[in-house]
Amino acid sequence: MAQVSIRLNGYSYTVGCQDGEERHLMAMAAQVERRIDRVRALGAPGGEARMLVLAALLMADEIHDLAEARLPSSAMEKIAAAEQIVRERDGERTQLLDLAERAESIAAALEAF
Predict the structure, then answer these.
(1) N or C: which end of the chain has fewer CB within 10 A?
(2) What is the pLDDT of residues 92-109, one digit of tens each?
(3) Residue 89: which residues within 8 A CB-CB, separation 6 or more?
(4) Chain segment 1-57, per-residue pLDDT in tens
(5) Segments in 3-72 forming alpha helices (H)
């Protein structure tokens, strides 16, 4: 396992990676540093942790946009339909649990007779 020293927001970090992936890790660190520079250029206040969080959010936003751009609209419609089905099933599950509780309380009342 290789060890690579990267620099982010003025701080050095030693990070482990698979042998041969050192350049890739350094390229990823450079991408993060570019986002940090963008956050800094926007004048965002805060310390190191805040700067890294904002940089991570910028990267997540870019990933989200890329994912949406790669998915055809039919796939997005299918995802929305699947999410709706999941919500409906959750509602049905709640109803079934309520009915089961009622049935158990009725059974308990009948046994008490």
Answers:
(1) C
(2) 888 988 888 888 888 888
(3) none
(4) 899 999 988 889 999 999 999 999 999 999 999 999 988 888 877 788 888 888 999
(5) 22-41, 48-70
Interior/surface letters 44-60, b for 16+ CB within 10 angstroms, e for the rest: eeeeeeebbebbeebee
> Vertex 111, ends 105 and 113: CA angle to 5°?
110
- From the list 23, 29, 35, 41, the residue with the least C-alpha distance to 63 is 35
CA distance 44 to 9: 13
Which helix (H) or strand (E) segment is 96 a member of?
A: helix 73-112
- pTM confidence score: 0.55
